Amino acid sequence: MDGSYVDTGRLGKKSGPHIEKRLTAAFVKVAPAGRHTDGGGLYLQVDDSGAKRWLLRITVKKRRRDYGLGSATVISLADARAKAFDMRRVAALGGNPKAHTRAVDGKDLTFEVMAKRVHQRKFGDRLNNGKHIAQWITKSAALCIMFLPANTGRKKAVLTPRP
């Protein structure tokens, strides 16, 4: 060899996504027990009993989180990929994927709405005057928690009195 031959072959794994190793719909139907990756944090979890579910493992605000996307018998591979893409996009923009999903589904309640529902259930069948109802709601609204989402985990914000 005179040094003119250069081997361009790389040793080891290739960089970038391994598209040839992505899951297929046929494999999802007959997948053995274990955790099978589709790439980008999307996994098919198969139990020993044969139950299958989609999991998404991503980093949200510097913490690793696992989100369940649903049963593989109900949600197809394409739908799981679409949900995973949406949740990764929300996380990349600095948002909370679970809170975003709840908002899209219409399940994002504030404490104010919850307080009114509780009051309606508790006092709805009684003949209380309007003043009592207004006082009860106003006293409940004395904290700023009334305007926070019900699924917030911020203790400091929940216990801060309103100005």
Write the layout of secondary structure elements.
Elements: H1 25-30, E1 34-39, E2 42-46, E3 52-60, E4 63-71, H2 77-92, H3 97-105, H4 111-123, H5 130-140, H6 155-158
Antiparallel strand pairs: 1-2, 2-3, 3-4
Helix pairs in contact: 2-3, 4-5
InterPro entries: Integrase_DNA-bd_sf (IPR038488), Integrase_DNA_bind_dom (IPR025166), Phage_Integrase (IPR050808)
Domain Integrase DNA-binding: 23-103
Keywords: DNA integration
Describe it for me?
The chain has helices at residues 25-30, 77-92, 97-105, 111-123, 130-140, 155-158; strands at 34-39, 42-46, 52-60, 63-71. It is α+β, with helices and mostly antiparallel strands. It folds into two domains: 20-105, Double Stranded RNA Binding Domain (2-Layer Sandwich); 111-158, no CATH class. Strands 1-2-3-4 form a four-stranded antiparallel sheet, with helices on one face. Strand 2 and strand 3 form a beta hairpin. Helix 2 packs across helix 3 (97-105).
